[in-house]
Amino acid sequence: MAAGLTATSAVASERTASGPQESVVDHGAVGDGVADDTASIQASIDRAYARGGGVVWLPRGNFRIEGSLRGKPGVSIVGQGSLASRLLKVGKGDCLVYGTGTGLDDSDVERVSLEKFAIIGEPRSGHLFWGRKAATAFALRDLYVEGGNSPLFLDGCYSLLMENVQVRAAETGDNISVNAVSHNVMLLQVASQVAKAGAGIAITGCSGPIILGGKLEYNQRDQLRIGQACRGVLISGLYIEGIQPSASDYAGITVEDVDTVVIQGGFFDATQGDAKSHPGGGAMGTDGTGTYIRARGQTSRLICSGYGFASIAPTQRHVDIAATAEACEVTIPFGASFANAAPQRNVVRFSAGGDGPILAAQGEPQKIRHGTTSILAFSAEIEDRRDEWNGRDSFTPREDGYYGWSGFIQLLDVAGGSNAAIILYDATANMPVARLDRCLGAGSPSIDFSFRERLSLRRKYQLRLTYSDGEGRGRATSGRAASNRMSIEKMK
User: Shortest CA distance to 117 belongs to which of 99, 94, 95?
Assistant: First the structure.
């Protein structure tokens, strides 16, 4: 008993001078890791709620939780730091639960902040934090969560902020799960490590989630999984390490059935290793493979560029896009390995440097005759690292594959009622490949063009212009480089 009184006195002495509304020690919490503090902490939460909301103060100590704590709307819990203030969940069941999740009539749990404490679970513990349905204006800051099963689990969240949160070593499930119809979710500098049988972070059914910074490493499945009808996802500056082997079908980031996801910046390191290199985690592969980004299902509009990486080894695939994905556009380092099962709908391009696009412009006016077809010439400001442009009017690819050929041409003094067609032409086979028709207004219109076609190596391709003038006269291009340009880029 004396020891219990000493522990109580110690935690009581560390209450803040600002006087939080409720301290758990005022309701009998001991914080010695031996006595069950469930009832005392629950009494503090209930008392703050009865007063119309407020803060429950969790001072230094190890607060043993044998049951489950039920949070209340408007009641925040604040500790003295994640190393000092700790909830120790013992046995089965969940530790800290907000909401009941019983149905549409479940009242919202609003305006809650959990800050500066740790929740530590056992292998048989359930969720260590569970936001069940309609968790609104919820903030988790400076928390450390370890152990349990699916330890940090949120359903139906609105205006959710996680900041400087670290979650580690889920026995089963994902370390962090954000599910159901959630929106306005931001994860800021969140770390997730060594989930033993799940992903580091899994987000499903969310609109507009944002992940800024943070580190995910050595989780048994995907380091980050975005899926099931998420929309408008932004991932920026995320560090990912310890990616599972490619044969595992997991990746650094997996997006599946997602509409619009932008991945920018950040760093990928596919380093693997055994359990000794990441204590507490599950078995990892050591074959040196690994996929950085994987697009699966009906994913559309994956946009990715500008990330750093630890290896460009051919065994480490930078991106893998399934045949069912569409409108994806990914820029990877020159020479990096990739897979793109539907290049007619998705684009993987190498970053500029080793394999940049062909660029060229017109340096002088070119005559365009009425009722005839002219071969367009681009002989100025040429950039051609692969030596595929003949310097004037023909392109001969060194590889089979899909190419993007785009640009614009400006005609001068065009009469109303004129028409033009830009033709991508195979001069070797003497046949058109693709054609764009344009109706032209009077003046000096710009005729834009954009082709994405499969071209064959060693064939000669040209751009041709068929022109029909409203007055039956010939015209000319302006000849200015700024108004008459084209580019050819190998699509991957």
Answer: 95
* pTM, rounded to two decimals: 0.72
Alpha-carbon distance of 47 to 60, in angstroms, equals: 21
260 and 232 in contact (C-beta within 8 Å)?
yes
Give the Cβ contact number of residue 91 at 10 Å: 12
d(CA 333, CA 342): 20
Q: How far is CA 249 from the centre of its chain?
A: 18
Cα–Cα dist 386/382, whole Å: 12
* Long-range Cβ contacts of 10-13 (<8 Å, 24+ apart): 10/60, 10/61, 11/59, 11/60, 11/61, 12/59
Residue matched to tokens 């681009």: 378
Helices and strands, counts by H and E, the chain: 2, 45
The position carrying tokens 């614009």 is 408
Q: Could you tell me which of 338, 293, 347 has the C-alpha nearest to residue 312?
A: 338
Which pLDDT tens digit goes with each residue over 120-147?
A: 999 999 999 998 765 677 899 999 999 9
Percentage of the chain exceeding pLDDT 70: 87
Burial per residue of 422-453, b for 16 or more beta-carbon CB atoms within 10 angstroms, e otherwise: bbbbbbeeeeebeeeeeebeeeebebebebbe
